[in-house]
Design goal:
79% helix
Length: 373
């Protein structure tokens, strides 16, 4: 127990240091938390201290939860929340008007409010319908002015939450895409180097299964990339201040995702063939290992290392030619497994050639831009 608490405290300490020292998710979380607290305080100052609203709690409560991860999400959540609060309030008022008894009104209104809140398209916002109904039923305030006050206080909180989120450091989430853009080539290169080193040793099927498991996990990184890109696109919608954020570098184009989807699929196919081979003829490692190692070098090279990357690709192409020659040898005992790996590695090199051309084009563009500054 004490060890777990110590580890948790250390993790919190590291998060606090990262928040203070560098931009990242920890700092973004801290900024959004402070914004939410500030929006709630402002809403309470207006509704409770200045306006003396009878249900002033609704304004800061609404503002607090509408400082969302993006301005677009704040707007959509505000619309859903206001509609749900209206529905919950009206359901409770109608039930109380019909029964004139709090318990009976709860039995009548809450099932309908909860069912409405569980509508799948409402997501986490659905809780507000039964909560608003409970506020009305618990306080017994269902007159016309009371209901109007509740709706006005909810609208006030929603307006403040949206305004604070949009005006104070509006969140832009492009960092995740860039981090994953760096992670994917690094992880692919590391796996290709590991496989190249491993097949030069005596064949071990359990180890080959481990390579395949790692290749499958690469697909999870591509999924994370797509999720991060959706979040990035969403953060630019209705965001009035994203152009003022110097750290908000536009993410790479979407076709980049499809390229890495193909590359990870090629690596998965190669490792699957190795894991299913059962054994490798003596000639296979001699021609396959240099090719996979060179392919890993292509992905591991710096994006501005144009010549280094081109040489690695040429080395991989030469190794693939030797692999194809080994396949053409009719006396080779590993023809079925070798044929599958020859086709898979050919597809991998074709995709890597496209990546090299794109990276080289980016490097040339950056060099030209630097000369014209």
């Amino acid at each position: 127990m004490w060890h777990a608490l110590t580890q948790e405290a250390a993790a919190v300490g590291r998060a606090v240091r990262r928040c203070v020292m560098e931009a990242g998710p920890e700092r973004e979380t801290a900024v959004q938390s402070l914004k939410a607290a500030g929006a709630a305080l402002l809403a309470w100052a207006i509704a409770g201290w200045w306006w003396h609203a009878p249900m002033a709690l609704l304004a800061p409560w609404t503002a607090l939860f509408l400082v969302q991860s993006t301005v677009y999400r704040s707007l959509m959540s505000a619309l859903q929340q206001v509609v749900l609060v209206c529905c919950g309030t009206l359901l409770a008022a109608a039930a109380l008007g019909l029964t004139h008894h709090t318990m009976a009104a709860m039995a009548l209104a809450l099932p309908a409010a909860v069912l409405l809140g569980n509508y799948a398209r409402l997501g986490g916002q659905g809780l507000y319908a039964p909560t608003a109904a409970l506020f009305v039923l618990a306080y017994g305030s269902s007159s016309g002015p009371d209901i109007l006050h509740r709706l006005l206080e909810t609208l006030l909180g929603a307006a403040i939450g949206i305004a604070v989120n949009a005006a104070v450091l509006p969140p832009v989430h492009s960092r995740g895409v860039h981090l994953l853009r760096e992670k994917l080539p690094r992880d692919c290169a590391d796996l290709l180097h590991t496989v190249a080193d491993g097949i030069e040793e005596p064949y071990d099927q359990e180890r080959a299964h481990g390579w395949y498991d790692r290749a499958v996990r690469l697909a999870d990184v591509v999924t994370e990339l797509r999720t991060a890109r959706r979040s990035s696109h969403e953060s630019y919608r209705f965001n009035p201040g994203h152009r003022l954020r110097r750290s908000a570098v536009p993410p790479p184009p979407e076709d980049w995702d499809f390229t890495w989807d193909r590359i990870t699929e090629r690596i998965r196919a190669i490792t699957r063939s190795l894991s299913e081979a059962g054994w490798l003829a003596d000639s296979v490692p001699d021609v396959l290992a240099p090719q996979l190692r060179a392919a890993g070098d292509v992905l591991a090279s710096r994006q501005d290392a144009v010549e280094e990357r081109r040489r690695a690709l040429d080395t991989a192409e030469a190794a693939h030619h030797r692999l194809a020659s080994a396949l053409a040898d009719s006396g080779n005992e590993a023809t079925p497994a070798l044929g599958a790996m020859t086709a898979d590695t050919r597809r991998l090199l074709d995709d890597l050639a496209g990546v090299v051309d794109a990276w080289n084009g980016d490097a040339v563009a950056r060099e030209r831009a630097a000369r014209h500054r």
